[in-house]
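worker-3 :: picked Eukaryotic translation initiation factor 3 subunit B
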Amino acid sequence: MAEVVSMADIEATAQRHGIDLSSVDLDSIRLPPGEDFGIKSDDDEDPHQEDPLEFEAGFGNTIVVDNLPVVPPEKFEKLEGVVRKIYSQIGVIREGGLWMPMNPETQKTLGYCFIEYNTPQEAELAREKTNGYKLDKSHIFVVNLLDDFEKYMKVPEEWTPAEINPYTPGENLQQWLTDEKARDQFAIRAATFTEVFWNDSRQLMPDLVYRRQYWTESFVQWSPLGTYLATVHRQGAAVWGGATTFNRLMRFAHPQVKLIDFSPGEKYLVTYSSHEPSNPRDTHRVVLNIFDVRTGKVMRDFKGNADEFAAGGSGGVSGVSWPIFRWGGGKEDKYFARIGKNIISVYETETFTLIDKKSLKVENVMDFTWSPTDPIIALYVPELGGGNQPARVSLVQIPGKEELRQKNLFSVSDCKVYWQSNGEYLAVKVDRYTKTKKSTYTGFELFRIKERDIPIEVLELENKNDKIVAFAWEPKGHRFAVIHGDGPRPDISFYSMRTAHNTGRVSKLTTLKAKQANALYWSPAGHFIVLAGLKGFNGQLEFYNVDELETMATGEHFMATDIEWDPTGRYVATSVTSVHEMENGFHIWSFNGKLLYRIPKDHFYQFLWRPRPPSFLSAEKEEEIAKNLKKYSKKYEAEDQDMSLQLSEQDRKKRKMLQEEWEAWVGKWKQLHEEDRELRVQLREGEASDEEEEYEAKEVEVEEVLEVQEEVVAFDLDED
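worker-3 :: tokens ->
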């Protein structure tokens, strides 16, 4: 085959031979058989061969809406108007951004259209909201991103088996629980470093386990059972695990993630991000992903405007309450729910769909909480119609959505619900208006969840006009504490849901008068509580034994911002975070109020005890151990004695070293003093003794001119 000849070469050759190409009839030229001079004829191509499709990148803001009605030209404008109305509610469609192709032969539409938005986020939201949209019985929309077609076209024609990697055993993620010294770990974040320590109370100092700079870009968070440590990055979140190595176990891709939340059983991780809208008048766009922690797979995602996720909760970002999803059913992670306008949407994790494919309708519902142990929801509906429709608290069983108990409440200003950790009791703090409507007073509705028909008891304080500063149940117990009062030093009262004399009625145990406290921190094991005075009280601490109703110790951590018990209830950490510029760091205390050690840390952000999973021991076994504690504690008392002797020996060696350093320092200066002896004798004009009592005192008068001042004096002269 001849080489391809350019047109410039042909023209040059023709001119050289005196041929005028404009007078040549090119159609009359016939090439020799089999010769094409490198130019392939269109007639020689295989008509059945498909051209390879090429896609331009950057169509992420365009969607394809399929299964539209096929209409003639006279109905085209009407159909376009309907489609535009549906999709312009989700985002701003670009000018000329709605294109509905037509069949040139029939002049009818082809049953699909392209819609181009200003941003990829709007296109993604449109796909999420309208895929499966039912226009009528015969036309259910199928919506895809235009970028997805390239992905679909690259799917190979033939199936190839997945490559199976050989099994390599990983680190035991619970190994840290087998520490021979029965120590607990904690994580801190200060400046650019995140560190994990053992709390070594015997050595009276923390023992470093792992240290890493720039480990996270915002915060770290332990999973509820302590298996994982989560970090947050611009590209998403990651979880790490182990006792000492902290290898990365899984990544979760979610750009610009701001918040994360684990399910109680650690099976799932919820990630949240908020994105600026293209139109400043619109609200932020929210993206939520629910990942399987072990596989990293997205089990369900939720997208929408911030307004759709703004109801309920205790605080978050951009007007969205957090956590948006609340988990129910205990450690099984069986259900999760979120509140909406007049609904509570409850999902089950087997299929990640709504239970019974519909939400629980509750008109004007304001808030809800799950029982910590059972699939029971406590929901609150405020008072409506100027008091004609009372407020109410209802208990609803899931998945049957059966109402177990309801209590109507009148003249209600506000309500707050507190579950006891075992799900045995529920306290509802009710703020009510007085008859004049000018002020409020507070009482409690106490539900006994485990008893037949769920009886309710009303508790009012002796002075019902007292302001409630704080409320807290005893973990795993039957007691609760209330801080109440309007003055700068409120009272603290302790109550029990059962006593030896009256098991079915709430009774007051004691009231502590005029305490510098505004927060309550029960030990996770119960029995003990820290009465804390934060903020205006500057870190006042009182360690109180509720069994004996006596104060064990008092202390102070000046400017303390946070208090947290370790998971065993043996130690308490108090800290001053970077909300204050000074005094940053943390203190570790024993349960009875002894300050064990203090660690200063500049730019201190977080202190987090590593949680422990529940004990495998039954309640009966734990009770038996508590009764025979002296027998079990002999081994540990011997270890403590050995450690005490070891510490005493260490202290003795330290004191001896300090004494030797002191004596060496004194000897050095005595030597220098002796070397300067001759100089001192000269300065004393030959006096040899350094003893002060041998000196002879002499009085010497010294005259000194302090000031010279000139003054002009005027004289009167008599003229004779």
